[in-house]
Request: fold
Amino acid sequence: MVINLTLLQSTFNNIAQTLCPGESITVNGTVYNASNPSGSETIPGGSLLGCDSTINVNLSFYPPAINNFTQTLCTGGSVTINGTVYDEANPTGIEVVPDGSFHGCDSTIIVNLTFNSVVTNTINETLCTGGSMVVNGTTYDADNPSGTETIEDGSFLGCDSVIFVSLAFSSVVTNTISETLCPDESIIVNGTTYNASNPSGTETIPNGSFLGCDSAIVVNLSFYLVASSTLDDQLCIGGSMMVNGTVYDESNPTGVEILQNTTVNGCDSTVYVNLTFGSSVIVSYEETLCPGEVVFINGTMYSASNPTGEETFPLGSYLGCDSTINISLSYYPEAVGYITEVLQVGGSIVVNGTVYDEQNPTGTEVFNGASYHNCDSTVIISLSFIGGNAISALTQVNSPLCQFGNDGSIVLTGINGGTPPYIVALNGSNSAPVVNFPIIFDNLTFGFHSLTILDATGTVVTLEIFMPDALPFEVDLGGTQTIPLGNNVTLSAVSSTQIISWDWSPSDYLDCTDCPSPTSTPTNDITYTLAVTDINGCTSVGEVSIIVEKKQEVFVPNAFSPNNDGFNDELTIFASPQVERVLGFQIYSRWGEQVFAQFDFPPNDLQFGWNGTFKGEIMDPAVFGWFAEIRFLDGQVRLFKGDVTLVR
Reply:
């Protein structure tokens, strides 16, 4: 048997596809993808004829569709991609767009945004006061000096730009001119004259500051006091005086001299000359004497009946002119006391060694030097006598503590004679029965008082009782005192009782006003008044005058020899203690050139003197003129001048 076999060929199929990235197919249970893109699969009996079939798989893949979205935005900008908002808070990301590629595959967008920072500018400027500037339509000035302006699309990238404005304002540049000028000097500022009548003001200089702003000059001038002194001298008739080259005498007694650049400040000084001629030098003689005392002056007797007068002593002054003394005497009051007593018949008292009784009931006793002022004191005695059963009173009289006071008292210590009980009255009032002793009548003044006594029988006796006044409480400050200018004097008071308070006036020159012995250093005549109170509360007032003797003594040698031999090498001002300062000492050559000047220094000090050199060169022997302005302790300023010879 013949078997004819017909062999059928296997069936082959090819799968050749192009897939999107990430896609895959499954063939005969095998997954084919980008990592397994090809292979062969046999399908048993898979053909039409029942034979095995073979499938050849060969895949390819489209390239990935990837786009990069890279963009720079303005600050605050954003974009929306695939529904997602990208901005400064979310600047990067990946977006997948299904079927978004050309082949229908998914596409990927990689987003990467950057952002431009805001373009900022700062305007920091200093403007003049009152200036302004406009930025983006806004006016900036002193009331609105700062702010922020946004310029839309103002940067070169088309973004907004920001301008920060901060302005400062220059204050007016101010200069101050504060000077002290001589009284007649002036200065001109910006065309305005400033002087003593227009001492202050403000000048504005347009564009005068370094910034081109206006500047201001505040002018405030002060002026030295006018340096003036008065030469008020008294000369004898025919006398004369030269001041600043001008002769002053009886025909030319007054005038004004201007001394150029002679004050300590270099200003002119003025001397007012006022001379008098021929008047006597007048002094006062004022004394308080005891009653009955007299003094003889220039052969004339002055007493209580002739207490004042004027005595002239020809040529008696230190200038050789007549001198006159004005006399004025006063007298202490008489120191008088009274003894008025009622004694029993046969009684007596002894006063100043004299016995007073019925035969000698009255009299006057003088006690030499016994008063407070060491004057004589007088006691007037007046006695009365009673005897038998006559009514008499035993009394004690207490004078007022102070003169003219009303605190005196009469003390009734007993009654003799008569028939008790008694009724008594003083000065006709305030009668009262006598119960016991003592009986005190107080608040009485000095003088006679009537004591009336009425006994049981109706007998009335009136007794006159004299109450002496208190001795005067007086304070003695001594007589007028004369002291040289610059010296001091200690004031003191003497009184008859203990002083508990003092009140000196005026207070000028005193180191205390409520002490017993103040010290005064006066520069001018002065009279002090002292009010005192004693331990009894009594008051008294006294006066004392202090005469200041002014000797304006200034000495400058008429020659000196600056040869460094240690003797007479410097020329300076020598003066008495009455000179306070030398305000100026200037020396001139005979051609008028100033060779030396020294200001405001003490006298008698060689270190401030001239050593005979000028500009470091030794001067040749010659005669030089000098001027000196001197201030004395009393404030008076005088000008002195003279010549000095320099010798070698």
In short: Residues 119-170 form one domain. The two ends are 187 Å apart (CA to CA). The chain is about 0% helix and 55% strand. The first strand starts at residue 11 and ends at 15.
